Amino acid sequence: MTRDIEHGDQIYGEKITYVNISPDGSIVATFNPFHSSILITKVETNHNTKIPFDRTKFFDKVPSRILGWSLAVSDIIDAENNIGLVAISCITDEDMNPNQNIPPRRIRRRVKQFFLNYYVGILLSLFAIYLLPSCIFISTPIMCYYLYYFVRYSLFKSFTRKIYWSSSKGMTKLFKFSFYNNSTAGNTNSSTNYDSEISTYKYCFGGVVSFLKNSTNSSNCTTLICINCIKIQNIDIKLNRNIIITREANDYILPDNLYKKLESINDARHNWKYLLKSRYQEFLVVASEYQQTLYIELYNINTSQLVNVFYRNCGDEDFLDLNNDNPGIFAISTDLRLFAYSHGDNIITIYLIESGLEVVSKRFDNIYKIKFIEFITKDKKLFIIEENIENGVKFHNWFISGCLNDYFPISRSNINLSDNVISTLMNYDEYYHTLTKANGRIVTLEKYNKYKFRIISNISIKTAIFGENESMIDEHEHEYFSHDLEPWNNSTGPIRGKFLNNDKSILLLSGRNSIQVWKSKSQFFKDFEDFISFENSKLVYIFINKFPFRSKPRFQIKDDMTTIITHACKSLAYLYTNHKHVKSIEKHRKFVSSITNIIKDFIEKYPDNWKLMEIQYPLMAYIIYSRSFSLIKYILFNNSQVGSQGKSTGLLHRPQNKYGSYPFYDNLKLNGELGLEDKQLRHNDLEIALKFCQDQDAVMLAYLLEYYSENSMDHIGWMINITKILPELPANYVELLYHKPCFGGIKYNFPNKRFRELSVSEDNLKVYIPLTRLKTTKSLSYMEYRKLGYEELHNIYMVPLPNFTTYDTVIKEKSGGKFRTIFYWLKKTLLPPCYKNLSDKDLSPFLRISSKKNKGAFFNVPVMEAVITSRWEQTKKYWMIPLLLYFLFLLLFAFFYPIYSDIGSGSSESINCFDIIRSIIIMGTFYYIGIYLLIIEFMQMKKYKAKYFTLFNMFDSCSIMSGVIVYTLMLANSIDTTTNRINGEGIVILMTVTTLILWIEMLFWLRLFSKIAIYIYIFGNILRKIIPFFAFMFIIIIGFGHSMFVLFAHPSLLNLNPSASIFTLNNGTTNFTLTASSPDNPFDTIWDAILSAYYWSTIDLSAYNYWPVKIFAFFANIILVLVLLNMIIALMNDTFNKAKEDGKLGLLMYRTELINDYERLNDPFFSESLHNGSQFVCFHRDPDLMRKWIMKSQEFKDTKLYSWYNENVDKRKITFDDGVDINPWYTLITGNESQKFCF
Question: Buried-most residue among 348, 478, 639, 1160 (CB within 10 A)?
Answer without folding.
Answer: 348
